[in-house]
Input
Amino acid sequence: MATIEIQTGEKIKILKGLEKVYEKLIAYKKKYCFLISLISLPCYAQKENVVVDGKIVGQKTYEARRDSILYEDNCGCIYYTTDKNAKSYRRLMYPIVLEDDEMEGIAEFFSERKIPMKHFQYELLNTYWTTLHWFNGDYCLYSPCDWIYEQRCLLTDSIIYTHFEDLSFFAITDYKKQYADCFQFSYVNNEVERIVSILEIKIIDQAKGISVWTWKDKEGKIEWRELKVKSENVKLFPMIIQECPEMKCIEKGIEYFEELIRQNKNIKK
Output
């Protein structure tokens, strides 16, 4: 075992030979903790009057201005907004910041699987991405009831980080540029034993930073596709917010929102 000093000054034990891996992860953490302070811009909650029998009896506070209400009950509401001051937009811009135990898990992953930590230089290096949806004939973001379900991703020179409920990471084993605006990564999933899979990223709108991510198995069979947008550009798009202030509700999918649209034709753009 070896020891290394982390950000708090505490010395922790790590597997021998992984000192450089840890130093890189710590430098990454310091960089993105600093970025959080840069993007912590003011955001404003929206208040609406509560009207009963034609009289204002109080006010309720929401994350954003509710341009169009898709659904509402005692648990919460689902609504469409173009309110770019909402905290939901700021949250989608947050970097993924590693906890010390997560850094330890990543370092052990490389050691136990005997995977060399390779470093690649490419055009999308250190870009941060948010999941985008196609809704009501337009691109749209989604802010879930529980923030842990927000899907975010970071591409570094050696690891692909994704966050959905928990942090997942994929060790990049190879990279090549397929053609203009199309990039292919081979990776090993931290949850699967040394099986190499493929991620293909195709930029479809350079100005807005929109791309299609295609995840494939080792034979090249498509497992799923998703839209992503560079997180710095999230304010270019409207958002559906599922807000449940009193309790956690079941997260709805885009198909459910499309059904609400068929029932409610009053979506504002």
The helical segments are 19-39, 87-92, 100-112, 254-263. The CA atoms of residues 38 and 194 lie 38 Å apart. The chain has a mean pLDDT of 75.
